[in-house]
Amino acid sequence: MANCFSIFFTINLVISFFVAGAADRKGRSFGGFLALSIFIGWVIPLIVVLVMAPQQKLPPVENGSQAKCPDCAELISTEAKVCKHCGKRLADNTYEI
């Protein structure tokens, strides 16, 4: 009985790492999806990873130190986490298209 549980747990853990890796390739948090997959199961996080769009970097403008906000199109620093004009939160200087 204990042997079956350890095999099941190991398979679940391996699949959770694959789901987290797929999320990481799409620009999302590896650790966040790994924790989510371990605690609630890997099926729902896998579906979320499969349907979500990859994140892309903000396109730099002029000298490369500024970019246009994807919501309000105002110039902001490429290191900004929040647009100072409209308040849009930019996760790791990325946005979804």
Q: How would you describe this structure to a colleague?
A:
This protein is α+β, with helices and mostly antiparallel strands and 97 residues long. It folds into two domains: 2-52, no CATH class; 56-96. 45% of the residues lie in helices and 14% in strands. The chain has three helices and five strands. It has helices spanning 2-25, 30-40, 43-51; strands at 55-57, 60-61, 66-68, 75-77, 94-96. The strands form two sheets. A three-stranded antiparallel beta sheet has the order 2-3-4, with no helix packed on it. The longest helix is centred in the N-terminal third of the chain and has 24 residues, at 2-25. The radius of gyration is 18 Å and the shape is rod-shaped. The chain starts with a helix and ends with a strand.
Which helices and strands occur, and which strands form pairs?
Layout: H1 2-25, H2 30-40, H3 43-51, E1 55-57, E2 60-61, E3 66-68, E4 75-77, E5 94-96
Keywords:
alpha+beta, 5 strands, 2 domains, two-stranded antiparallel sheet, 3-stranded antiparallel β-sheet, 97 residues, 45% helix
How much β-strand is present in the residues?
5-15%
Task: Provide the structure class.
Answer: alpha+beta
Order of helices and strands: HHHEEEEE
What is the domain tally?
2
Cross-sheet strand order for the largest sheet:
2-3-4
Low-confidence segments, given as residue ranges, are: none
Residues in helices, as a percent range: 40-55%
Largest sheet: 3 strands, antiparallel
Radius of gyration: 18 Å
Ends apart, CA distance between termini: 48 Å
Number of strands: 5
The overall pLDDT, averaged over residues, is 81
- Gross morphology: rod-shaped
Note the total helix count. 3
